[in-house]
Design goal:
By secondary structure, the chain is α/β, with parallel strands linked by helices. Helix 13 crosses helix 14. The strands form 4 sheets. A 6-stranded mixed β-sheet has the order 6-7-8-3-9-10, with helices on both faces. Strands 16-17-18-13-19-20 form a 6-stranded mixed β-sheet, with helices on both faces. The termini are far apart. A hairpin with a 2-residue loop joins strand 1 (2-11) and strand 2 (14-24). It has 18 helices and 20 strands. It has 3 domains: 2-235, Rossmann fold; 240-327 and 413-504, P-loop containing nucleotide triphosphate hydrolases (Rossmann fold), CATH 3.40.50.300; 343-412, no CATH class. Residues 11, 16, 34, 36-42, 384, 394-399, 426 line the site of adenosine-5'-triphosphate (ATP). This is Ribose transport system ATP-binding protein. Residues 2-238, 239-494 form the ABC transporter domain. Keywords: ATP-binding, Nucleotide-binding, Repeat, Transport. InterPro entries: AAA+_ATPase (IPR003593), ABC_carbohydrate_import_ATPase (IPR050107), ABC_transporter-like_ATP-bd (IPR003439), ABC_transporter-like_CS (IPR017871), P-loop_NTPase (IPR027417). One of its GO terms (molecular function) is ATP binding.
Length: 504
Amino acid sequence: MIEMKNICKSFGSNLVLDDVDLNVESGKILALLGENGAGKSTLMNILGGVLSSDQGKIVLDGQEVQFHTPSQSLHKGIAFIHQELNLINDLPVYENMFLSNEIKKNRFSLDMNKMIQETQEIFDKLQIDLDPKAMVSSLDASYKQFVEIARALMMNANYIIMDEPTTSLTGPEIERVFGIMRKLKKQDVGIIFISHKLEEVMEICDNYTVLRNGKMVACGETKSTNPHELAKHMVGHEVRSDVLHREVDDNNKVVLKVEKLSNDKDFEDISFEVKEKEVLGITGLLGDGRSELFLTLFGDTPNYTGKVYLNDKEIKIKNIHSALHNDIAYVPKNRKENAIISDMNILENGTLVSLGRYANKLGMIKKEKQCEEFEKEKQALNIKMGKNSDLITSLSGGNQQKVVLSKWLLSRPKVLILDNPTQGVDVGSKEEIYDIIHELAEQGVAIILLSNEAQEIIRTCNRTLVMFHGKIQGELRGADMNDHKIMTLATGSKLENANNEVSQ
Ligand SMILES: Nc1ncnc2c1ncn2[C@@H]1O[C@H](COP(=O)(O)OP(=O)(O)OP(=O)(O)O)[C@@H](O)[C@H]1O
């Protein structure tokens, strides 16, 4: 058992953890919950030896331990799987499994066969069907998670910290990861599961601990609570769960129209339109081509065929510059790789796309105007941050995501494409983002919301397109937009099949 007792931690004058206790039992899954910036990652970084606490102690199986480096923590059987996975895409799986821990034949060469064999053995133990020689770049996101989990076990981890492991996964992949977590539980491994997805917490976790503003505010067994109560602990007040979208008049002007759009490999024959005041959902499963489709509309792949119209006028989107010129904005998925510039500060990240508006005739930026506009977005999105000049990386994941959103909102788009915009965002902030989406829609912006979460689509969108293998498998609206029908289309079936199943 791990006991973290009276942990305190400050960054400068910012008290981030205030006398926090946390217990992790072997063979149990503990949910660590809290709003963005509540202190979850900081607490886990202390357990994982990445940071030192200012006060408090860690007791492992009755003995006090001190970790000053991640390897000291790992040595005591605690593995940390970070949200942004630490795998090297251009190496095979087995080499990733033994990174910096390689098995050598002699001083000059590695024992590849032994590494492959040991990797296979651990995969067999976890019943993971994966070739150790496969390149990591060829794996889908859930298999990358499996490799990280298997690597943790190979290092004899008795406890595994999983920081938002399901954020970029779709339904069936999440179930696969949960399958492995259940097996680990049976092998008496203790797991700390950080997540903002409360339904998942209820499904997989035994216990929960909630942090709010650096304090532990609630803990207990998941079987005696519910997502609503957990959300309330997290944000300190009631969180709504009702349907938010409003009806859109069929006569509203079409803002964006796409006709028979195809590229060579990712999507084919895509036609749809988005009307003024509409929030159009796009969903599906991994490999459905939706991100590639909308990256094309943002100028990423100019050699598409088909036509794109903005306000009835045909436009050719040759590159990102022409997308911006046509007031198309794109909030990408995968924040760390595609959305933030980690060497820039918060203000620079938040205003990058709208800089032209703050420049004087000589091209010099009027700092006061830049700060003033960013301040409005900061307030509207409730971004928890220190100074504008702090690096974006000093913010918690969810607050970084809000800065990315502010960057695109400040560009004042006509079409706003949001690819999983609430990834890593807490339950309360999600609602704030949904409100902003609807306000923008009300102002006439055409919104396209790409999401892995059926519930997000159902609550916020007027209608949704469901994609399967690069094609639109179907469209759902009104009462037809439900989990069952979305999943039926997303797995390539026709709706008649869903209706039959329902009536059986
Ligand atoms: N290296 C750092 N320097 C300064 N402040 C930091 C640093 N790391 C974290 N913080 C601050 O500590 C607070 C807690 O951050 P932490 O990352 O632990 O939150 P979190 O609960 O994991 O949030 P999220 O759900 O958004 O990931 C935040 O206010 C963050 O800005």
